[in-house]
User: Which sequence fits this backbone?
């Protein structure tokens, strides 16, 4: 994930909390309202009991100790004991309910957003970086879940705590309670000011931290260049600046945090001072008890915790709301390509394919295909060649209906393909990409991706047809060998063979392949060619071709340039034209001969025979 | 706020020690007094807190019952506020000094680690994974920071609170004091037990989170495959499996938490009820005052509640210690000196190079170069041909002393290569690699990277023109200020190579190492690059690794490598005159032209 996305996501637009967004966040817990009710009641009981314990402490002093009444003492302590058992039970209940619910809400949100992602069209993924989406699914869901569980819990606890404390204080002495009542808003304001400041500082720290990580990363991956260019001192100077910046921010954030509690404590101490003063006098007058003063001190001392919780939740809520806004923007995005009402699944899409005056663009001012016309016979193999950006990939993407024409139609078997369902088309197309994408898991699992119901025999059969079987059985665990994340444990050639076998297994009616440009060893290359042959025989095929052998094998070759077909015909026809194709071909021919001959690679010499005309090989012997 | 100077006045390698505590102690050089202040301030703050309890006792016992309460109550209130203010101030001072220490030590380690890594040998980096080094320099250093700012100071705080409040308890009543701390060991043990488990469960939760991310990431980057095979439902099921596992692990983690707090609550309540009862009985029997009872209630809370966190802190501290070891393990690796060398040259290199019987191995007993001998005069060019793994790249890596040869002798201008300082050598040698590494900076910064002096815009443009990349750069939105990489433009292999070429031109080295520098270049630019390379090679000793005859034929000396040995040597003409690999390659290339002709005439002759 790029570090830059991390900074961006930290920025949140709204300092004002938007109530409709809050409602939507709350919607996440609606199905689990019983759990919410459960933890709200539990935390309410817990906070009432907490205040009650302090009140009991007062009764122990006033009813038991001062009148020297052992019975009253034991009576009150018994209540204390019984309540504390219940207290522990309710503590268990609220942590369990809120905590597990939090995990559940995360699960729900992740599931919802993942499911939604599966429906979105290519155009969405083209313009949205993977890192951005990942953050929505991981960190934003977490923040939202925290807000509706722990956030709600903390607020309930804090409010109830203050209310109960005020209630008990009022029963002890209402005049003194008024002093505390005046103090609470002041405390809250100060606490919120601090928490906001601290939050802003920590956000800065995180930003710099991701920069530092990026810098480290680059210096480790580029260490050979750094050393070769002898840039150690300058790098160090640059890094020092960054690290000092980090120091300044982090230190500031740390001491602001260190200042927060003392300030709140001193404010509470002022209130306690007032209580001691006034209460002391009242004790003398007989309107206040010693236990009462003790209880007041305890209530006020404790008051800073709910206050700081309220301030914290308030500042975190702004972040959570910003998270929610991004999350819902993803949930609200609509797929561009959907089934038309009444779209059918014809059962097969074998048939001629026709581009009828198709125009397509990603951005309106830059058309990629303009009034493109093409008729392809069922079972034909079409090779697409031409420069990068000429429109080859777009053509095959349109066939796969990853995108739809902006103007004109594409007909399959004479029927506009938008009359068919997406599933009808895409489940019958086999695609092999230029850089094959494998999923972590075993080779078998990756092959089965082509047809989920395939038996092990069928998988092996497909692998044999695609020429992948031979290398697979040389692996230690054969078909059960893990391919690693994205297939890192396999070579490029091996990945290509597996993705071909996967396509073979799918038994596609249309076969689309973007040939790899990177070179693989000759043996693998021969196997890949064989695999392609299998697919080309059984389906109408469109190959973005980079290798001469592929091009030669095609029924028709299309040179695509500037959004249209500049030359079209068989190999021989196009060579005789002596145009673009001729130039392209001769250059390619020269390069391939050269690349395939390696005088040092003695053991592989034999496999060359299949590819190079005899006399060239003879030159190497 | 600039970081304290002493941050930099210490070599982190000095704290390498087998003894962990000694290591920590040494690492704190320059900050011990700050940390000491932090601890003392913490103690004073705790003392003020305890005093305020005792003040209440004094108020209740000695003032409330007397008639002077009217005059004295405001004074007591004032004293209470002053104590609170002192407590707050010292707690702030403590926090500030502790974080100053922790942040400074983190800065010290970050800097040291950064610099250290760029001075470790190539061999070290060859054997170490990027991710591993990265996590040591970021998350491990952060764990050490937390060790100093939160954990060590937190444990100190609990111990101080215990000691001070226990002494205060003793002053109230010795028997009561001892009865009141019975559960302390129990609480600590429970807390250790639970947090040990909680931290393991947390690790498992993190592991699963990583798996979930991988599944998600593969789904997103493989969206083409998913859609092409219409496997959305399959993907949903796959994600569901990971997602629900994540939920299960999160649940377990939470359940452990939801057990710990009530269980420790029950134990603490038992202690409090027992303590209250005993203390109240003492008051009823006249052995203690009411004020003392009130102080006792507060003291007891201050002793027991913090103990519940002790287990968490100790468990966290142990991860801090592991992180410290991991960081120091890297710091303990030997750096390669950039300045050491028996010969400290005053002027630039001329460029005479000779190899005498040089052998080299990356790992013991698997030599990659065997007894290599050849020599070139300053300004001449050497071409190296051979298959992958034949030792060409290893040979050129010896010259900037990226690796040290195992035996034999390499001489530069007649002086043994090992006697030159590495840093100086690398300034004299320019390298253009097959796949150059560019940094996520602007193109201009990449061109001037490592030049080591101020470079004017004109110079940069001249270099870019010479490397045939100026026009490409101007086609980017921000020209020379365009960022390279994820946040900016992605350059093709050939473009990267030309930027690297411009960089080397600016550096103006005496010896040039070109590792297959034209292989990934498309044909349009091939000629212009070849021209640029020829200009660059003029007047410098050059080592050119190449595959094509065209590239090597003008070299003064051509060396053909096979399995770490030179199997043929000579000029183009000499090598053509003898049978061998070189001639085979040459003949192949001329045959290819014939072949092209034949193919074309074959096809073109075909009836349509």
Assistant:
């Amino acid at each position: 994930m790029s570090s830059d996305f991390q900074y961006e996501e930290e920025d949140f637009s709204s300092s004002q909390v938007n109530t409709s967004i809050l409602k939507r966040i709350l919607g996440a817990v609606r199905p689990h309202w019983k759990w919410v009710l459960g933890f709200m009641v539990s935390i309410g009981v817990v906070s009432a009991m907490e205040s009650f314990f302090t009140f009991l402490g007062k009764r122990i002093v006033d009813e038991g100790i001062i009148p020297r009444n052992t019975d009253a003492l034991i009576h009150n302590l018994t209540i204390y004991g019984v309540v504390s058992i219940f207290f522990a039970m309710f503590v268990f209940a609220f942590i369990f309910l809120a905590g597990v619910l939090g995990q559940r809400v995360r699960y729900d949100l992740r599931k919802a957003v993942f499911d939604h992602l599966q429906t979105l069209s290519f155009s969405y993924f083209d313009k949205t970086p993977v890192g951005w989406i990942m953050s929505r699914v991981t960190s934003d869901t977490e923040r939202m879940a925290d807000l509706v569980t722990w956030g709600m819990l903390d607020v309930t606890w804090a409010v109830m705590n203050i209310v109960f404390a005020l209630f008990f204080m009022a029963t002890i002495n209402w005049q003194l309670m008024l002093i505390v009542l005046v103090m609470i808003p002041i405390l809250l304001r100060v606490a919120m000011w601090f928490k906001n400041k601290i939050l802003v500082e920590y956000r800065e720290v995180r930003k710099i931290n991701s920069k530092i990580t990026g810098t480290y990363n680059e210096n480790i991956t580029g260490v050979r260049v750094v050393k070769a260019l002898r840039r150690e001192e300058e790098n160090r100077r640059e890094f020092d600046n960054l690290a000092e910046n980090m120091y300044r921010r982090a230190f500031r954030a740390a001491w602001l945090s260190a200042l927060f509690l003392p300030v709140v404590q001193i404010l509470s101490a002022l209130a306690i001072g007032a209580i001691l003063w006034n209460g002391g006098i009242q004790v003398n007058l007989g309107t206040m008890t010693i236990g009462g003063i003790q209880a007041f001190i305890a209530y006020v001392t404790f008051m800073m915790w709910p206050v700081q919780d309220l301030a914290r939740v308030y500042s975190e809520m702004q972040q959570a709301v910003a998270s929610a806004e991004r999350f819902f923007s993803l949930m609200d995005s609509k797929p561009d390509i959907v089934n038309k009402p009444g779209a059918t699944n014809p059962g097969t899409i074998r048939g001629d394919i026709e581009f009828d005056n198709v125009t397509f663009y990603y951005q309106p001012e830059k058309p990629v295909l303009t009034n493109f016309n093409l008729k392809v016979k069922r079972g034909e193999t079409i090779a697409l060649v031409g420069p990068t950006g000429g429109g080859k990939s777009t053509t095959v993407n349109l066939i796969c209906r990853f995108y739809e024409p902006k103007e004109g139609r594409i007909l399959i078997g004479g029927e506009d393909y938008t009359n068919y369902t997406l599933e009808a088309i895409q489940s019958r197309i086999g695609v092999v990409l230029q850089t094959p994408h494998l999923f972590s898991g075993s080779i078998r699992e990756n092959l089965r991706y082509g047809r989920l119901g395939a038996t092990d025999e069928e998988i092996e059969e497909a692998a044999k047809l695609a020429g992948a079987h031979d290398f697979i059985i040389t692996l230690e665990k054969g078909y059960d060998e893990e391919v690693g994340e994205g297939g890192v444990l396999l070579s490029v050639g091996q990945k290509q063979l597996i993705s071909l076998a996967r396509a073979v297994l799918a038994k596609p009616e249309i076969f689309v392949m973007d040939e790899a440009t990177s070179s693989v060893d000759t043996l693998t290359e021969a196997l890949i060619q064989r695999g392609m042959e299998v697919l080309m025989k059984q389906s109408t095929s469109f190959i973005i071709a980079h290798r001469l052998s592929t091009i030669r094998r095609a029924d028709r070759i299309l040179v695509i340039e500037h959004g249209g077909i500049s030359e079209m015909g068989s190999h021989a026809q196009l060579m005789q034209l002596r145009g673009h194709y001729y130039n392209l071909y001769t250059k390619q021919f020269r390069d391939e001969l050269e690349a395939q001959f390696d005088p040092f690679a003695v053991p592989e010499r034999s496999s060359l025979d299949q590819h190079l005309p005899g006399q060239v090989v003879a030159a190497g012997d | 706020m600039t970081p304290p100077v002493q941050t930099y006045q210490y070599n982190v390698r000095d704290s390498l020690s087998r003894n962990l505590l000694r290591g920590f102690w040494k690492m704190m050089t320059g900050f011990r007094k700050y940390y000491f202040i932090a601890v003392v301030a913490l103690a004073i703050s705790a003392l003020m807190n305890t005093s305020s309890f005792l003040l209440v006792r004094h108020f209740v016992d000695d003032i409330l019952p007397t008639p002077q309460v009217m005059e004295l109550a405001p004074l007591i209130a004032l004293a209470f506020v002053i104590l609170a203010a002192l407590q707050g101030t010292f707690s702030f001072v403590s926090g500030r000094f502790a974080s100053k220490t922790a942040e400074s030590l983190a800065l010290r380690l970050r800097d040291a680690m950064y610099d250290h890594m760029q001075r470790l040998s190539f061999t070290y980096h060859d054997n170490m994974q990027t991710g591993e080094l990265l996590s040591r320099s970021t998350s491990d250093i952060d764990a050490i920071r937390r060790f100093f700012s939160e954990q060590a100071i937190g444990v100190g705080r609990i111990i101080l609170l215990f000691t001070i409040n226990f002494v205060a308890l003793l002053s109230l009543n010795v028997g009561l004091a001892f009865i009141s701390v019975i559960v302390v060991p129990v609480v600590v043990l429970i807390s250790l037990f639970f947090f040990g488990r909680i931290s393991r469960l947390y690790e498992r939760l993190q592991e699963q989170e990583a798996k979930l991310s991988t599944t998600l990431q593969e789904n997103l980057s493989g969206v083409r495959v998913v859609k092409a095979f219409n496997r959305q439902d399959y993907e949903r099921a796959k994600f569901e499996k990971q997602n629900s596992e994540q939920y299960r692990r999160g649940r377990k983690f939470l359940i452990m938490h939801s057990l710990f707090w009530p269980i420790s609550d029950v134990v603490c309540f038992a202690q409090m009820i027992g303590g209250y009862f005993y203390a109240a009985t003492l008051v009823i029997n006249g052995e203690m005052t009411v004020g003392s009872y009130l102080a006792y209630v507060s003291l007891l809370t201050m002793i027991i509640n913090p103990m519940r966190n002790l287990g968490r802190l100790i468990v966290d501290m142990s991860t801090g210690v592991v992180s410290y070891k991991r960081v120091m393990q890297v710091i303990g690796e030997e750096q390669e000196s950039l300045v050491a060398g028996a010969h400290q040259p005053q002027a630039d290199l001329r460029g005479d190079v000779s190899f005498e019987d040089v052998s080299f191995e990356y790992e013991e007993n698997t030599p990659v170069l065997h007894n290599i001998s050849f020599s070139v005069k300053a300004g001449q060019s050497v071409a190296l041909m051979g298959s992958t793994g034949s030792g060409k790249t290893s040979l050129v890596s010896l010259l900037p002393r990226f690796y040290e040869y195992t035996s034999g002798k390499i001489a530069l201008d007649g002086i043994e290569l090992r006697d030159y300082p590495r840093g100086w050598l690398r300034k004299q040698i320019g390298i253009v690699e097959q796949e150059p590494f560019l940094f996520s900076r602007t193109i201009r910064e990449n061109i001037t990277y490592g030049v080591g002096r101020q470079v004017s815009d004109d110079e940069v443009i001249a270099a870019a023109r010479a490397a045939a990349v100026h026009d490409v750069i101007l086609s980017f939105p921000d020209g020379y200020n365009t960022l390279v990489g994820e946040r900016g433009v992605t350059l093709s292999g050939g473009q990267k190579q030309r930027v690297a070429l411009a960089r080397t031109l600016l550096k103006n080295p005496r010896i040039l190492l070109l590792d297959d520098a034209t292989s990934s270049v498309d044909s349009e630019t091939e000629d212009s690059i070849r021209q640029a390379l020829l200009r660059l090679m003029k007047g410098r000793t050059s080592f050119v690794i190449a595959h094509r005859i065209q590239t090597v034929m003008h070299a003064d000396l051509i060396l053909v490598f096979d399995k770490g040995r030179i199997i043929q040597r000579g000029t183009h003409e000499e090598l053509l005159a003898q049978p061998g690999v070189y001639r085979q390659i040459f003949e192949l290339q001329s045959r290819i032209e014939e072949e092209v002709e034949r193919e074309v005439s074959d096809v073109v002759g075909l009836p349509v």
Q: What stands out?
A: Residues 1-15, 601-621 of chain A have pLDDT under 50 and may be disordered. Chain A touches chain B through 152 residues (CB under 8 Å). The CA atoms of residues 98 and 120 of chain A lie 33 Å apart.
